[in-house]
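# nightly structure sweep
# worker-07 picked up a monomer target from the shared queue
# config: single-sequence mode, recycle default, output format = C-alpha cells
# input follows
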Amino acid sequence: MVLKVLGTPTPNTSNEIQIFHVDARLSDELSDVGRAGFLKVFRLLRFCVQAIFYRFRYGANALYYVPAPPHRVAILRDWIALGLCRPFFKTTIYHWHASGMGQWLRESAKPWERLLTSWTIMRPDLSIILRPANRSDVEVFQSGRIAVVPYGISDPSPQFETEIRPRRIARSTARVKLLGKAKLTAAERSSADGDPEVFRILFMSLCVREKGLFDLIEAIALLGPALAGSDLRVELLVAGSFVTDSERLEFDQRIVAPDFARGNVSVRYCGFAGGVDKEKLLAEADCFCFPTYYEAESFGLVLLEAMAFGLPVITSNWRSTHELFPPNYPWVAPPRSPREIAVHLLRIAETPWDDSLRRLFLEAYSEDKFATNIRAAISSAAG
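# output follows
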C-alpha cells in the first residue's frame, strides 16, 4: 500500500490521506504460505512495479508496508520489496502485525542477514505497533517514531442489546442455578435455548498446535472427572482450517479417545467458519478460549470479535495478547497449561455473566477509534 498525504496538519485537523492499494498476496492457498517459488518472485516484482508506478503517476509520497513475521522466506520478500521500493519514496511507514522480527535480528540472524536487513529494512520513519509490549521488538529497527495503535473493527454484533445480551444473561443464570443443584422452570430453560446444562466453548483460529488447540483439548478432557455427578456438560467447538494433515489426524484421533467417552465432555470440529456461520458460532458460544503461543502472535482480531459478542475469554500471557484485556483480568493462563485452562473454564461456568468485555470493545477497539488513531499516526510521519 502506498499513501499520498495532502495538506498541512494543524492542532484541530489532520492531513487528508489518499490510499493506493497494492494487493500483494503471494500465496493462493493457505498451504503455500511460507514456501518459496518462482511464481511468487514474479508476482512480487510485479507488485513492486505497481507501487513505483503509483509513486510517479499519483505523487504518492509514503510507502506503507506490513513487515514479515520472523520466517526466512517472508523476510526474503521484505528484502526484495523494500530494497526495490524504498528509494522511490520520501517516507517509509511500517505497520507491524506480527511479533518476533526484532528478536530474530538480535538472536538468530546471521551476520550477512543483519547486513542485508540494515540496507533494506532498517530506519523507517514510523513504526506502528499494536500494543506497548511490542515496542522492544521493533526498537532494534531504529524507527524515527513509534506509535501504538490497537486494531479496531466494525461491530460484528450490532444486535447485541436486543438478541445477544438477553441470551447471555439467561444461560449464565440458568447454569449457575444448575450447578447449585436448583431446579429450572420451563420458562428459564426456554429462555436459555433449552439446553443451559451445555457449556459451549469456542476455539476459532488457525488450527495449529501453537495456537493452543491441543492444550485446550487436554483441558476439556481434564474436565470430565471434575464434572462427574454434575448436570453440566462441556462441548468444545473448533472452527478453523488445519495447515498439516498430521495435525488434523492427531486431532481426529484425540477427540474419540476413551476419556471423551464419558458423555460429559465432547469436541466438535466445525471447519472454517466465515460470515453468517462465524456470527452464529460466536452468538451461541458461552465462552471463548484462545491459549496461543504462536511465534508471530501480536494481537488476535478474533479476540475483539469475541469481546464484541460479550463472551468471557480465556487467553494466554504470551507476548502481548493479555494486554488487550483490563488490568488484572482473571482469565489468563500461561502457555501450554491445560490444567490452568481447565480451572478457568470451571470458574467461568459458575460465574454470573457481565458485560465488561463488550463495553471494553466499544470503548477501545471500535472501527472509528482505530481510524482516528491510525490517521493521526500516519499524518505525523508523512505530513
